[in-house]
């Protein structure tokens, strides 16, 4: 499904097979909702995309969760690395000079209905899955069960779960795909010279 409000030129459409791995690798999102009073709220939170559900948690002290109307529309914005692109990096600058600055980035928009989960068991299960997701690649992964149960229970009280039932997905990767091979190579060299890793910032 597509979101017509996200501008995506044809050469910037992210490969559908890359969308879930991208969200999984970033593992965070800006959750945007609108309260009953019509005012918007946004919170940065850790997330997992499981099936058609994007799940995460936010601090109980954050008033955002209390302003969420269960079942209301929400938008989760997942962003990857981004960078300024200098026109001086393009090979075509020396040819005709018809070049301008731009910005490279990747982003996924997930829209759907949102529900708050102020339930200790639901939140514990979510935190366990989030922890396992991030710890699994480690040589000696830490698990929630490694900590005393009463300590875990105490630390779960200050957070609240949230779940987005995803109804539309649109993904954009603006990585100089519309430039020539020479121009893209120039961008990669320019980023490297600036101390930036060009992977994920320019199509190779």
Protein structure class: alpha+beta
Distance between the termini: 28 Å
Question: What is the gyration radius calculated from CA atoms?
Answer: 20 Å
If strands are numbered along the chain, what order do they take across the biggest sheet?
1-2-3-6-5-4
Shape: elongated
Q: What ranges have pLDDT less than 50 throughout 5 or more consecutive residues?
A: none
The SSE string, one letter per element, is: HEEEHEHEHHEH
Helix content: 25-40%
| H/I helix tally | 6
Largest sheet: 6 strands, antiparallel, barrel
Can you give the mean pLDDT? 94
Instruction: Find the count of extended strands (DSSP E, 2+ residues).
Output: 6
Beta-strand residue fraction:
25-35%
Structure description:
- With 204 residues, the chain is an alpha+beta fold.
- Helix content is 28%, strand content 35%.
- It has helices at residues 16-26, 64-67, 92-96, 120-135, 149-156, 181-193, and strands at residues 28-34, 40-50, 53-59, 72-85, 102-117, 159-174.
- It has a 6-stranded antiparallel beta barrel.
- A hairpin with a 5-residue loop joins strand 1 (28-34) and strand 2 (40-50).
- The protein is elongated.
- 26% of the residues are buried.
- The model has no long low-confidence stretch (mean pLDDT 94).
């Amino acid at each position: 499904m597509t979101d017509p409000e996200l501008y995506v030129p044809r050469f910037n459409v992210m490969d559908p097979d890359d969308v879930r791995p991208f969200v999984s690798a970033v593992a965070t999102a800006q959750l945007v909702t609108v309260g009953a009073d019509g005012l918007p709220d946004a919170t940065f939170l850790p997330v997992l995309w499981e099936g058609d559900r994007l799940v995460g948690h936010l601090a109980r002290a954050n008033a955002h969760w209390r302003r969420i109307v269960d079942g209301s529309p929400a938008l989760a914005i997942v962003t990857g690395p981004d960078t300024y692109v200098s026109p001086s990096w393009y090979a075509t600058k020396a040819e005709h000079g018809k070049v301008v600055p731009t910005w490279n980035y990747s982003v996924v928009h997930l829209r759907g209905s949102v529900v708050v989960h102020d339930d200790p068991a639901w939140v514990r299960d979510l935190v366990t899955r989030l922890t396992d997701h991030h710890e699994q690649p480690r040589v000696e992964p830490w698990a929630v069960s490694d900590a005393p149960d009463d300590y875990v229970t105490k630390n779960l009280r200050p957070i609240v779960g949230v779940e987005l039932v995803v109804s539309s997905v649109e993904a954009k990767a603006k990585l100089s795909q519309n430039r020539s091979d020479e121009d893209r190579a120039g961008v990669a060299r320019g980023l490297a010279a600036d101390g930036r890793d060009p992977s994920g910032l320019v199509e190779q």
